[in-house]
Amino acid sequence: MIKNITFDLADTVEMKKPHACQTNNWEVLRLGADIRLKCMGCGHVVMMPRADFNKKVKKLLAKSSDPVNRKSEFYVPKEDIARPNFD
């Protein structure tokens, strides 16, 4: 269990056990009481309570605001992500 680490949207984490597609890497899609994750191997989306997530997470692989990510071909800054307008 990781303590004292805050997770942000679009962070990549490694879980203790691999998914059925044999990938341990997951992207954080939603934060709150429940956490939604997307498998980086097959794209499967799962949602789990934060308590279960804290038990199952092994380590943080990449922060969304990491400068190394900015060099990636597919990097999109948070300011440029389209958000729905519910006004």
Polypeptide structure, described:
The chain has one domain. The termini are far apart. It has two helices and five strands, in the order ββββαβα. The radius of gyration is 14 Å and the shape is globular. The model has no long low-confidence stretch (mean pLDDT 82). The longest helix has 7 residues, at 50-56. The protein is α+β, with helices and mostly antiparallel strands and 87 residues long. Pfam families: DUF951. This is DUF951 domain-containing protein. It comes from Lactobacillus nasalidis. InterPro entries: DUF951.
The count of domains is 1
Strand content: 25-35%
Query: What shape does the CA trace take?
Result: globular
Cα-to-Cα separation, first versus last residue? 40 Å
Radius of gyration based on Cα positions = 14 Å
pLDDT under 50 segments (min length 5)? none
Counted beta strands: 5
Helical segment tally? 2
The sequence of SSEs as H and E is: EEEEHEH
InterPro entries: DUF951
Organism: Lactobacillus nasalidis
Protein name: DUF951 domain-containing protein
